[in-house]
Amino acid sequence: MEIKAWTYDEFPECAAVPDGAYVLATTGDESGSRYVPDVVYLCRGDHELHLQLLIPTSRNLLNATAAGERPTYPCLVYVQGSAWRKQDCYKNLPQLARIAERGIVVAVVEYRDSSMACFPAQIHDAQAAVRFVAERADELSVDPDKIVIGGSSSGGHTAVLATLLPDENGSPAADLPVRGVLDFYGAVSFLREDGYPTTLDAGSLTSPEGALAGGSLRENPELRYRISADTYLSPETPMPPVLIVHGTKDRMVNCEVSTDFYNLLRAQGRKAELVLIKGGDHGGSEFYVPKAIDVYEDFVRRCVRE
Question: Looking at the domain that runs over 32-305, which CATH code has it been given?
Answer without folding.
Answer: 3.40.50.1820
